[in-house]
Structure formats: C-alpha cells, structure tokens
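Lecture notes, part 5. Sequence design as translation. It can be helpful to think of inverse folding as translation between two languages: the language of shapes and the language of residues. The source text, in structure tokens, appears below.
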C-alpha cells in the first residue's frame, strides 16, 4: 500500500545517505587531501545495503503493480458486465414497450382504420370497435356516432328517394291523365266554339225572325217572351266564350315575350273606346309603363277587364274617373322586391271589404244581372292572367271612394326595361305625369271581358 511504499522509499534514502556520509563524501575529501580514505570494503557494504533496499522496494512495487492490474482487470470486467446488463435491460424494455404499444395502440388503431375503410367502402352496418386507451376509445366513439348519423341519413335519403320515385311515378301517371284531360278539353272547346253555339245562334235568329214576321200578331207579353229568348241565347254565347277564354289562359299556348305595357294599355283602351265615350269616363294613365315578360294578348285582356269594370260600376252621382298607375316607389301598396306594382283606381260604387276575396271566384257576383250585366268571370280571368304571368292581384280595402285593384308583375332581369308609347292617339293631356284618354275609335271589344 502507500504507507509501505513510503517506508521503503525512506529506507532507500536513509541507506543512500549512509553510503554517502560514510564512504562517498570521506573518499572525495581524502582524495582531495591526498590522505587515506575509508576502506573500499566499507563502501561496498554500504552500497550493497542501498542496492538491497532498492531491490526490496522494487519487489514491493512490482507486487503492488500486479495487484493494481488485477484490480483494474476485475473492474473492467465488472464494467463490461454492467454495460451488457444495461444494454440487455434496454433491449428488453424496448421490446416490452413495442409489444405493449402494439397491443394497446397500434392494433386497436388498425382495427378502427380497417372498420372505417369497410364503412367507407359501403359496409355501413359495420360497427367501429371501441378498444385501446381512452383517447383511442373516444375517437372510436366519435367515428361510430358519425357512422350512425350517416346510416340514419342514408336510410332517410333512401326512403326519400323511394318516395320521390313513387311520387314521380304518380306525377307521370297524372301527367298522362292531364294530357288526356287537356285533349278532351280541347275537343270540348272545339265543340263549344262550333257545335254548341250553332243551336244558340239558330234560336236567336229564328226568334228574331219570328218577331219580325209575326210581331204585329203578338201581344206585348209574346214580344217580351221572344226578347227573353233572344237575350238568353246571346248571354249563353257570351258565357261560353268567356269560359273558353278562361280555360285557355296558359294552357293552349304560352306566347311569353318581352311586352311593353304601354302598347297593351293602348289596345285595351281602343277596344273600350265606345264604352268609355258613352259613359263619359276620364281615363288617366302614366306617360310610361315598364316592359315585362308575358303574353301580350293576355295582358291586353287584363287591362281591358279592369278598366271595363271600373267604367261599368261607376257611381251615378259623379262622372267616372279611372286612374292607371305604377306604384313601385310608394309605401303601403304591398309592393314586393323584384316586382312591379300597378293599380287601377276608380271613383265608382266600390266593393265592400268582406267581399274582397269573393269577387275573384268564378261566377261570383255582388249585383243582380238586372243592375249590371256580365257573366261573373272577368275578375277570375284577371286573377288567372296575373298568376300565370308570375304575379298576384288583390283589392286595396283601405282605399275609400271607389275601388282600387292592385296587381304585381315580375321585373325583367335581362337587358332592362323597354317602354312603348305612353298615350293613345287623339288623347289630351290631363296633367304633367299622366294623360287623359278620349277614345273615339270603334274597335270590336272582347266579349265577356267584364265581371
């Protein structure tokens, strides 16, 4: 050990000092002085003692070195064993973690992925397994909930599709039936236009001929009976024509085009020129009306019916006044975005609010035929024309002092408005924004156009 090595070193140093003090130093001194020095044998003995001490030290150092090497070799061997054990422990731990990860995460995730792919491929009844750690189970539950919602929506969609198929089949059958019914209506219209009206014309003609030839032989009651027969036949002809017109709206043909409403108002007022002149009515209209999409003939009939009603149902105590107006920018008129709003206002006898809807029903009349003529189809025809054109029509019950008819028509969405002439030939000016119509032309009117 270290103490022994120090003791050996001290002994070597002591023996060397003894050799130096007892032999080497005296020998040098005597040699310089030229005298006899210590004996050589003494120097040899003292140096042999030093050599023995050095040998003893070297032997002990060799022993210590061997022991140290053995200890180092043992330590290195132990180190190698420890490192090997650590490596083995790491490998075993990694293998265990890999197996645990495979069992708890990878395999459950693979099952969820495989089940999801089967669902995506169309196996919607495949349930998503809930295995593995809590996070993976939460994910699986969310995917399963999504699958169930998808399945429920798919079933509902399939039911809707089947229902739509059944509905489509029903609609196809109804379309076939409707085409057959339309064909029958066309046949009926032809018969009504020709075969049914021919006997009526004969009845009226022969009754008039009878009155002409034998009128002097008939008493007053007989002439009255003949007048009743002629009037009934003519009214039946008007009724048939009105029914035909009503049934043909939007059915026979749809001549929809861009129509300048000014032109339709012009034609309607020309057709009503005689009635307007006889009644002394004043017709006020805008200088310009917009263009809309529709059938020009039907729109002419619309204006003609509304103006004819306003003239016919005038008040006996004041001159008739009919105003046609465009009220797109006015509030309180029921205007809708994307629609033009028009009004036809008169100062006539008016319509009670409780009958505002009833008057649009076919054959509904508020007055007896003795007071006001007509078939009761006019406003029904107006409603059908407006609805066929994409709008709606109603009576402004808040208006006082007459009747205000309000209707809407869709605004054109292509190149903008196209306006036509804002007045009728021969008209005078009633104001800065309107024109008063004084129609004198005698153009045949459309029969049965009034309510």
């Amino acid at each position: 050990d270290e103490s022994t090595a120090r003791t050996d070193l001290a002994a070597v140093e002591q023996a060397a000092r003894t050799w130096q003090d007892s032999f080497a130093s005296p020998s040098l001194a005597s040699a310089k002085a030229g005298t006899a020095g210590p004996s050589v044998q003494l120097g040899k003995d003292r140096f042999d003692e030093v050599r023995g001490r050095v040998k003893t030290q070297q032997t002990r150092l060799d022993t210590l070195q061997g022991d140290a090497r053995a200890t180092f070799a043992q330590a290195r061997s132990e180190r190698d064993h420890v490192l090997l054990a650590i490596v083995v422990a790491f490998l075993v731990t990694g293998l265990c973690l890999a197996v645990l990860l495979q069992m708890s995460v990878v395999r459950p995730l693979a099952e969820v992925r495989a089940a999801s792919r089967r669902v995506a491929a169309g196996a919607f009844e495949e349930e998503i397994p809930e295995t593995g750690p809590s996070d993976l189970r939460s994910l699986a539950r969310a995917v399963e909930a999504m699958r169930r919602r998808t399945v429920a929506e798919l079933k509902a969609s399939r039911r809707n599709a089947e229902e739509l198929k059944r509905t489509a089949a029903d609609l196809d059958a109804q379309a076939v039936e409707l085409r057959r019914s339309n064909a029958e209506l066309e046949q009926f219209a032809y018969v009504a236009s020709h075969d049914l009206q021919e006997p009526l014309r004969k009845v009226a003609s022969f009754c008039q001929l009878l009155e002409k030839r034998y009128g002097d032989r008939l008493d007053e009651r007989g002439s009255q009976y003949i007048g009743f027969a002629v009037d009934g036949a003519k009214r039946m002809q008007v009724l048939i024509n009105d029914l035909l017109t009503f049934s043909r709206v939007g059915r026979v043909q749809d001549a929809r085009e861009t129509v300048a409403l000014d032109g339709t108002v012009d034609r309607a007022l020309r057709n009503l020129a005689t009635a307007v002149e006889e009644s002394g009515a004043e017709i006020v209209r805008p200088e310009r009306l917009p263009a809309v999409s529709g059938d020009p003939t039907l729109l002419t009939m619309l204006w003609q019916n509304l103006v004819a009603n306003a003239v016919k149902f005038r008040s006996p105590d004041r001159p008739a006044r009919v105003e046609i107006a465009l009220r797109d920018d006015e509030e309180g008129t029921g205007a809708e975005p994307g629609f033009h709003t028009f009004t036809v206002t008169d100062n006539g006898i008016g319509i009670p609010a409780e009958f505002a809807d009833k008057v649009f029903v076919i054959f509904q009349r508020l007055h007896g035929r003795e007071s006001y003529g007509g078939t009761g189809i006019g406003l029904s025809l107006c409603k059908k024309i407006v609805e066929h054109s994409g709008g709606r029509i109603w009576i402004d019950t808040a208006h006082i002092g007459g009747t205000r008819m309000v209707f809407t028509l869709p605004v054109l969405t292509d190149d903008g408005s196209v306006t036509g002439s804002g007045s009728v030939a021969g008209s005078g000016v009633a104001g800065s924004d309107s024109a008063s119509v004084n129609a004198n032309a005698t153009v045949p009117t459309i029969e049965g156009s009034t309510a």
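The translated text above is only one of many valid answers, since several sequences can fold into similar shapes. Residues 416-451 have pLDDT under 50 and may be disordered.
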